[in-house]
UniProtKB/TrEMBL annotation:
Its main location: membrane. This is Lipid desaturase domain-containing protein. It is found in: Membrane. It comes from Culex pipiens pipiens. One of its GO terms (cellular component) is membrane. Residues 88-120 are annotated as: Disordered. Keywords: Membrane, Transmembrane, Transmembrane helix.
Length: 363
């Protein structure tokens, strides 16, 4: 069992609470010192508390421990010919109180367990059924074309490699990985936060998996290689295609001159293509190869504990899922929340509205 203790993570502080804490702790310090204290406190404050993670996200190493207690208030009403007809009403367990029926018969409160997340969640079941044969065909085509281009581009990258360019190649490769991580966050944030499954073409084919994943996070571990990676391989196709075109149409001198850019495009496209596979590993708690565990433990790819922070409802932070390197700085500058505030102010649309709708389909 890997998930024994959780990482140090805590909630966001609003500006008022931060200011109060800063003034209280700084005492009689000058305004400059107070500002420094507030800034230092904010930077050191993690994003979610351990309690928030435990209470508001599914325990993926124990996915059955994810139920909520609800109450069904059953009232017996005398019907025609002496028959009894039950009326059921669902509510929170805190509101379960015995109520009388119209004819004076006392009602009965029945406690029930309903899934908050997981494959038994009604919303997750409905979304899983929307996966179509047409979507499967698109994923198969994209995976095979993408793998073909990967092999071709790798051969050409190695063919034109020169050892004297190693430093530029390493820098370009690092920027390629960072670009892929930011791109994964941008796409993830956009699909999680905006749009609806009811949108034509895009909804059922591309937004549906994001809605399903939030209410059944471990569903991705039951998807095969094609379903897991089809969309990301599709996104990587233009970059890989452009790279192959450059190699086949340019002279050797031009290829050498732009070799660092080629290394950037190649590493960026590979990490884009592999993003959802890395994401799948971050939800897999048993049977991972040792080399994957090594990469996760050294935060070379997205670690499991790190990604748990995103899955704290309402799924509002830590969107980057390739390496996760950019999650902390983007959260600290309030990148995603600022974008959401601007879009909501301009359009009137509330972030994660469709996501909330599917999460509430428990019955």
């Amino acid at each position: 069992m890997d998930l024994i203790s959780l990482p140090p993570c805590s909630r966001r502080l609003d500006s008022g609470k931060m200011l109060a804490n800063g003034v209280e702790q700084s005492g009689g310090l000058s305004p400059t010192s107070t500002t420094i204290k507030i800034s230092t406190t904010y930077l050191k404050t993690p994003v979610k508390t351990d309690q928030e993670i435990l209470e508001n996200s599914m325990l993926e190493d124990d996915p059955n421990s994810n139920t909520i207690i609800t109450c069904r208030n059953s009232i017996s009403i005398s019907g025609i010919n002496g028959s009894n007809s039950p009326l059921d009403a669902s509510g929170d367990s805190t509101n379960c109180t015995a109520t009388g029926s119209p004819n004076g018969t006392a009602g009965t409160d029945v406690l029930e367990k309903r899934p908050r997340w997981g494959p038994q969640h009604k919303g997750a079941q409905e979304l899983a059924k929307l996966y179509s044969s047409g979507k499967r065909t698109q994923e198969i085509i994209c995976v095979y074309i993408c793998i073909t281009l990967m092999v071709i581009d790798l051969f050409l990258i190695l063919k034109h490699f020169r050892i004297e360019r190693i430093s530029k190649v390493l820098v370009a490769a690092m920027f390629g990985i960072l670009t892929a991580d930011f791109g994964s966050g941008l796409v993830h944030w956009g699909a999680d936060t905006w749009g609806s499954v009811e949108l034509p073409i895009v909804g059922k084919n591309f937004l549906r998996p994001f809605r399903e994943h939030h209410i059944d996070p471990t569903s991705i571990t039951r998807h095969d290689f094609i379903e897991t990676n089809g969309d990301n391989f599709m996104v990587a196709l233009p970059l890989l295609g452009k790279l192959a075109w450059n190699f086949f149409t340019r002279t050797n001198a031009e290829i050498q001159q732009e070799y660092a850019l080629s290394a950037y495009l190649f590493l960026c496209s590979i990490f884009i293509a592999m993003t959802n596979q890395i994401h799948k590993w971050s939800h897999t708690y048993w049977g991972l190869p040792r080399w994957v565990l090594f990469l996760q433990n050294h935060h070379i790819i997205l670690p499991r504990r790190h990604h748990r922070i995103h899955h704290v409802a309402p799924h509002e932070t830590y969107f980057c899922i390739t390496t996760g390197w950019l999650n902390w700085p983007l959260e600290k500058i309030k990148f995603w929340s600022t974008l959401e505030a601007v879009i909501e102010a301009c359009t009137g649309h509330k972030p994660r509205d469709d996501d909330f709708k599917w999460a509430q389909k428990r019955i």
